[in-house]
Amino acid sequence: MPPDGRRIDPYTVGVASLAWFELIGFLLGLLFGSFLNVCIVRVPQGESVVSPGSRCVGCGHAVRWFDNVPVVSWFILRGRCRDCGMGIPWRYPAVEAATGLWFAFAGWRMWEVWHPPAGVLHSFLPFWTLQTVGLAGLGFLLIGLLVIDWKTQRLPDALTLPGIAGGLFMVCLQAIFLDPGEDQITFVSKHLRLSSPGSFAARGNVFLTGPEALIFGRLAAVCGAALLLLLIRWGYKALRGRDGLGLGDVKMLAMVAAFLGFWPAMLTLFLGTMLASAYGVAEMVRGRAGALTRLPLGSFLGLGGLVTAVFGGGIIAWYRGLL
C-alpha cells in the first residue's frame, strides 16, 4: 500500500502496463514499417536500402524529415509529393500501419511473457522473450514479401534467405535458455519420448538433449517444408511441361518453418493455397483471369503465415483433437 494509504488496483496497473507495451510496440512498428517501404521499392530492383535517402520517384527531390513521419505525413500531404504533386500510393501508410499493428500484437505477447500467471516458472522468461522477438521479425518479413510479390510476382532472396537464417539463429538462441532436461528426447521402454516442459528428471537414456532436439527439429522442419514444395514443383513440371511454382515460394515457406516449425508451415501452406484458389476463382468469374493466369502465391502464403503466427497453435491443437 502507498504511504498515503491509497489502495492500488492491480487490474488497473496491469491494463496500464499492457497499454504501454502495445504503444511502444506500435511506435516501433511504424518505424520499421517506414523502412519496410524502402525495402519493398528497392530490394526487387537490387538497389541499396541505406543510400540514397528517401526521394520522390517523380521529381527526385529528397523527402524532408517532417514529410517522412509514418502514416501522419501521408495524410498531411494528402497523398501527394510536396514538390511535384505526384501521387503517393496508399500502400505506404498501409504497410506502416500494418507493421505497427503487428508490433503492437508482439508487444501484447511480450507483456504476457513478462507477467506470467501465478505458479508459472519465471525461468522460461528469456526463452519466450526471444520467441516474441522472432514473431515480430517474422511479421516484418511476411508483410514485406506479401506486398513485393503482389506488385512484382517476385520473392527476393535478399529477404527469404536472411529470413531462414534469422529464424534458425533465433532458435539457437532459445536453445541456450532451455533448462536442464527440458524438451529432451529419451529412450523409454523401447520408445522415444519427449520430456514434458519443466521436467528435469531423466526417464531413460537420453537420445537427444533439449537444445539438440530443438535445433535439429527446426532444421528438419525447414528441409521438410522446402522439399515438399520442391516435389510439387517437379511433379507439376513433369505433368504439364512448365513451371507452376516459383522457387521463391519454396524459400518463403522454408522461412516460415524456420520461425514456427513444420506443422505451422503446413498450416500456412494450406491457408495460402485456399486463399489463392478463392481469389483465382473470383477473378475467373469476373473474366479477369484464365486457367493459365499466374497468381502471386507468395502474397497468400504471407497472409496464411500471419494468421498461423496468431492462431496456429489453437488451430493445430483443434485439428489434432479431431484425430
Distinctive features:
mainly alpha, 9 helices, 3 strands, 4% strand
Describe the structure.
It contains 9 helices and 3 strands, in the order αααααβββαααα. By secondary structure, the protein is mostly helical. A 3-stranded antiparallel beta sheet has the order 2-1-3. A hairpin with a 2-residue loop joins strand 1 and strand 2. Helix 3 runs antiparallel to helix 4 and helix 6 runs parallel beside helix 8. It is globular and about 70 Å long. The N terminus is likely disordered.
Secondary structure tally: strands: 3
The percentage of residues in β strands lies in under 5%
Please write the string of helix (H) and strand (E) elements. Answer: HHHHHEEEHHHH
Q: Which percent range fits the helix content? A: 55-70%
Largest sheet: 3 strands, antiparallel
Q: Numbering strands along the chain, what is their spatial order in the largest sheet?
A: 2-1-3
Separate helix tally: 9
Distance between the first and last residues' Cα = 52 Å
Poorly predicted tracts of residues: 1-6, 196-202
- What structural category do the secondary elements indicate? mainly alpha
The coarse overall form would be globular
Radius of gyration: 23 Å
* Mean pLDDT across residues: 86
Summarize the topology.
Elements: H1 10-42, H2 72-76, H3 91-114, H4 125-152, H5 157-176, E1 185-188, E2 191-194, E3 205-208, H6 210-240, H7 247-260, H8 262-285, H9 297-322
Helix pairs in contact: 1-3, 1-4, 3-4, 4-5, 4-7, 4-9, 5-6, 5-7, 6-7, 6-8, 7-8, 7-9, 8-9
